[in-house]
Amino acid sequence: MAMELLNAGATVQVCHKETKDITQKSKSADVIIAAAGVANLVKSDWVKEGAVIIDVGINRLEDGTLAGDVDFDDVKNKVSAISPVPGGVGPMTIAVLLENTLTAYQARL
């Protein structure tokens, strides 16, 4: 994803859950793509007002419910857009996977 964004002319900063000063780094982002594999890792104090969040993470909690890497309830009133979990990027991922499978099959004919 970082390479796709760089190719599109975006300035990209890649962080992981152990990045030092991650709160300050994420606060400067216009767009946050969260894919850390840690439920509710990103809180509202990590996010600047009006940011866009794409939550790629999906985590099963102890009670059996699903949660993303972003604490949806904590950030939803601060951001301009956020993808839900479940039902956000998952359907798009499946659609692109199916499209790529069809393209690969057609290429072998």
Task: List the defining traits of the structure above.
109 residues, alpha/beta, Rossmann fold, three-stranded parallel sheet, two-stranded antiparallel sheet, 5 strands, 13% strand
**What's the CATH superfamily, by name?**
NAD(P)-binding Rossmann-like Domain
Catalogue the unreliable spans.
none
Query: What is the chains' assembly state?
Result: single chain
Number of domains: 1
CATH class: Alpha Beta
Label the CATH architecture.
Answer: 3-Layer(aba) Sandwich
SS class = alpha/beta
SS summary, helix count: 4
How would you characterize this protein structure?
The protein contains four helices and five strands. It is an alpha/beta fold. It has one domain: Rossmann fold (3-Layer(aba) Sandwich). The longest helix has 19 residues, at 90-108. The radius of gyration is 16 Å and the shape is globular. The two termini are 30 Å apart.
